[in-house]
TrEMBL record:
GO function terms (MF aspect): oxidoreductase activity, acting on the CH-OH group of donors, NAD or NADP as acceptor
UniProt entry keywords in alphabetical sequence: Oxidoreductase
Similarity field: Belongs to the short-chain dehydrogenases/reductases (SDR) family.
Ranges of residues in domain Ketoreductase: 3-187
Protein name in UniProt: NAD(P)-dependent oxidoreductase
Amino acid sequence: MSKILFVTGATSGFGAATARRFARDGWSVIISGRRLERLNALADELGALVPVHPLKLDVQDAEAVRQAVQSLPAEFRRVHTLVNNAGLALAPAAMQQVALSDLHTMINTNITGVVNVTHALLPTLIETGAGANIINIGSTAGQWPYPGSHVYGASKAFIKQFSYNLRCDLLGTGVRVTDLAPGIAETEFSLVRNRGDRTAANAVYDGTVPLSPDDVADQIAHIANLPDHININRVEMVPVRQAWGPYEIYRE
Ligand code: NDP
Ligand code: 8X3
């Protein structure tokens, strides 16, 4: 029987690339996100290869997540790998200049959403046991500060510590947990962050070579397919053209 992937945020970027990669590898895929048209289009595309279950789901809604997991069709119930990918950044300006509601949306999606989905799927993953995976998409922003990252970066720091702490709780169950932390990657991420301003979004990637969604999907597939006795705690992957800047000095 084929293994089952549950990926959140499959309507775009890393999530869509991950669904495609796992489907090509013969996994059954549960694809979720809020935009139903995109989910259905992806389901049609991948349905030619493998069993696909599209789930219209807002990860912020704990009850909807619980119900969606509880009502998975029998052939999709035994999830092997959960990829907590749905997430977003908003308000790329100093914290003192941004709307509180944008900060709450990031917390509710990047933190509460990940907790909601993980909590709902933990019993299943523990039942799957040896070799099961929870792969949480963190970010370099969870480790390294930069102006305008405020709550976004902090939400990704949560992903790192949450992943490590989960490992402690899951010790002995065979379930593996990874914080996969990419650097700059070209997806719709910057379009969302800049509220649909395509010029501002494109400027993020101008003149450089960012990671691609497939680069990240390949890394997810690598981690998910490692022998059962190996746990990758954290991976930070960046394009070769990305490195750290120095401390900023404020001068009069
Ligand atoms: P995209 O904007 O291309 O994709 C984000 C996905 O998240 C979409 O499928 C979107 O689907 C989904 N999503 C957003 N909010 C919700 C919600 N409330 N409920 C369910 N799904 C939601 O960006 P990326 O692919 O780049 O982002 C994927 C993850 O990678 C995020 O967690 C992001 O923080 C992280 N990341 C991105 C990096 C980058 O440079 N691109 C680098 C490091 C990490 P829909 O709108 O249909 O719900
Ligand atoms: C997304 C990468 O550098 O925009 O997590 O924070 S960055």
